[in-house]
Amino acid sequence: MAQHVKARCETYPRDNIKRFHVPDDKVSWETDFPGYSPTEYTSKSLIGTLEKPRPEYSDPDPKHSPVEFEKLKFNDLDGDLNRCSHVTDVYEIKDGYPVNPMGRTGLKGRGCLGRWGPNHAADPIVTRWERDKDGKIKKDENGKGILQFVCIKRKDNGEWAIPGGMVNAGEIVTVTLRREFGEEALNTLEMSSEEKEATLVSIEECFKHGKEVYKGYVDDPRNTDNAWMETVAYNFHDEAGDSLGKLKLHAGDDAVGVQWMSIHKGLKLYASHHDFIKEVVEMHGASW
Ligand code: RP5
Ligand code: MG
Ligand code: MG
Q: What is the CATH number of the domain that holds 128?
């Protein structure tokens, strides 16, 4: 996977912050970079004030809550929050801060990520075969079937993406996968509790038979030298097109659009999602 391309984007996704420029050959911490002086940035909304305490998903800030910050258990299970990395057994802690195991990003602090160190997400990749009006699977010029996946348009930057989201403290990944798919692709947050329950039950059976596609680092534009995204991506495939493939899609929460997207290698997707989709294509011997 191409590392730190998006995580070195010139302008950070919030507040028009400019990253310190890191050339390709200076990404690795093992390469000396004497002039390296990353921009420092942690979004104010993560720190909180007396009137408005910080959100639940946000770690304490060392400058504002040093005693609480000291108590964070990096590289470990911290209460019901997993601060271990999928990338490395132990990530380095330097001057009290976790160090991004994939190298420099040109920005220190937490940016707009809630956690110092790994921020764990889960990505549900729901697929079906593209079919013609007679129900026959569409093929490319090499006779390979064309896959489609449920793709959302992100509210924060308008990019197309897998409907993934953060693993809440104490939440198991299988629950995150279903919850995020429900919220972003089926709009469960706007449903009555009965409707929501019925919708989640309707996908439960199909979501039992997922295949792990990827587990590890995400080249996310929000990453910093001290906070980064990691994910577990699962594929839920509807071979016959009569279960997940028939779902009524409706964008919700942090999605402003949703559709069955036909898969081809030219797709432009958020973060490392293009790489995850390619894995799914290979898994099914589909067109690329
Ligand atoms: C990406 O950000 C992950 O792959 C996942 O899709 C997503 C999670 O963040 P939010 O969608 O909650 O912003 O790095
Ligand atoms: Mg979400
Ligand atoms: Mg999301």
A: 3.90.79.10
* Minimum-distance ligand 1 atom for the alpha carbon of 161: 6
Ligand index nearest the alpha carbon of residue 166: 1
Ligand 1 atom closest to Cα of 166?
12
Q: Give ipTM to 2 decimals.
A: 0.99
Residue 218: CB within 6 Å of ligand 1?
yes
3-state secondary structure 84-117: CCCCCCCCCEECCEECCCCCCCCEEEEECCCCCE
Q: Which amino acid residue places its CA nearest to atom 11 of ligand 1?
A: 165
CB 225 within 8 A of CB 95: no
pLDDT digit string, tens, across residues 72-99: 999 999 999 999 999 999 999 999 999 9
The answer to the question of residue 189 being in a domain is: yes
Decide if 34 is inside a domain.
Answer: no
* Nearest ligand for residue 162 CA: 1
Range of the domain at 125: 120-284
The answer as to whether 161 is a domain residue is yes
183 lines ligand 1 (CB under 6 A): no
Tens digit of each residue's pLDDT (9 = 90 or more) over 233-285: 999 999 999 888 888 899 999 999 999 999 999 999 999 999 999 999 999 99
> What global pTM score does this model have?
0.95
* Banded pLDDT at 20 (limits 50, 70, 90): very high
Q: Number of structural domains, the chain?
A: 1
- Ion ligand 2 residues within 5 Å by Cβ: 165, 180, 254
Q: Rounded to whole angstroms, how far apart are CA atoms 177 and 41? A: 30
Interhelix angle 173-185/193-204, nearest 10 degrees: 120
